[in-house]
């Protein structure tokens, strides 16, 4: 009696745990965020870190364009300095010596510059008194030119602290097309970064679709594994009842138990695969890896696709990889112009204003100069010539790369197209196999219950049905992935997908 009580208590606890677990799973499913494929693509475009890196490259290229444009404008620099000498600089001493000599000579010239009678005035009027306007004699100062040309100069300050200020302006006038080439390279780099962003988005969209359909497929694999486990549990209970009734041998019971253990193992593997698929999907979306989504099954198996030639033609007009290689060719061509500019003269207008004094604020007048400055390489040992040859080789290499990309695009389109056709046929085969497998299970169940066959036929039919379900789910998933691959190969952009 006690044994029966404990037995029923154990069963009650087990049922309670199952009920609570079922309720918890249902609550967990209810808290999942419903997500469609287009929503997933938008999430990835907004949050994926690799896409953000590509967008950052566009911003950096835009900054480079502004830097290149600044080369056309004048450069104005202001510099200042302070110097302390241990003794009066020799130049100051020399300047003060010259000043002292000048001042002494000026003083001497003023002192000896006395009037001297040079001759009688032939126009003197004796009837009038002597006056400056009626001089009797003509006088002359022999040192008057020297006295007039010399003035007292102020000696320079002999302080040991000196302050300097310099203002410079330089405006390029001719650079041998160097500035033009630099700006065109910057603009091409910006275009290249924008194109690389579109390529990154196209790859991201494909990866999101692939991951989305992979999650859906693994969910169906888990569902199929669960159904197989539940079906085998029912078969085990049925075999156990038949065995107790003496209708089947114990071997049937053992076979069912072994198969149930095998199916439980496959269920664990399927659940682990689902967890990994969901984590990879969240990584692509750029969200927390533990985020739970309820994906909407949008399987499309009846989409009309253009013929192969049309798909290839569309790809050759829309694939961004071709724009990328064209930008690289343009960069190489501008590299030739840039290399040639190194052998041409550089001419600029330059203005310099400078002032150096021993105190602040400055009191004197700054020295300034303005003029044209030029520079040209006359001999460099063949460096410029080799730079030009290198740039020309880069153009040839980029053009060869374009042909390689062109062929690769055609190959990619054809492979995706063939895969799509193959998986479309695989779906048809899988549908028929699934229908046949369901019928086989039904017939095996009836025969087993009638005692016309053993557990082997029943288990084989169940295994066939499970495999048919997995094959169908895989065919549908691979078809949609192949379709996404074909869209990527044809260069369909994100805006068109929306």
Tell me what the structure shows.
With 498 residues, the protein is of the alpha+beta class. The protein folds into two domains: 31-73 and 176-345 and 380-497, Up-down Bundle (Outer membrane efflux proteins (OEP)), CATH 1.20.1600; 88-156, no CATH class. It is built from twelve helices and eight strands. The chain has helices spanning 2-31, 37-47, 49-69, 90-112, 144-149, 178-244, 250-285, 308-318, 320-341, 383-449, 455-489, 494-497, and strands at 33-35, 75-84, 116-120, 137-140, 161-174, 293-295, 346-357, 367-375. It has a four-stranded antiparallel beta sheet with strand order 2-5-7-8, with no helix packed on it. A two-stranded parallel ribbon has the order 1-6. Helix 6 (178-244) packs antiparallel against helix 9 (320-341), helix 8 (308-318) crosses helix 10 and helix 10 (383-449) packs antiparallel against helix 11 (455-489). The longest helix has 67 residues, at 178-244. The chain is rod-shaped. The two termini are 69 Å apart. The relative contact order is 0.12.
Q: Write down the oligomeric state.
A: single chain
Poorly predicted ranges: 1-30
Tell me the name of the CATH class of the largest domain.
Answer: Mainly Alpha
Classify the fold: give the CATH topology of the largest domain: Outer membrane efflux proteins (OEP)
Question: Can you write the helix and strand succession as a string?
Answer: HEHHEHEEHEHHEHHEEHHH
Q: How many structural domains can be distinguished in the coordinates?
A: 2
Q: Secondary structure elements and their pairing?
A:
Blueprint: H1 2-31, E1 33-35, H2 37-47, H3 49-69, E2 75-84, H4 90-112, E3 116-120, E4 137-140, H5 144-149, E5 161-174, H6 178-244, H7 250-285, E6 293-295, H8 308-318, H9 320-341, E7 346-357, E8 367-375, H10 383-449, H11 455-489, H12 494-497
Parallel strand pairs: 1-6
Antiparallel strand pairs: 2-5, 3-4, 5-7, 7-8
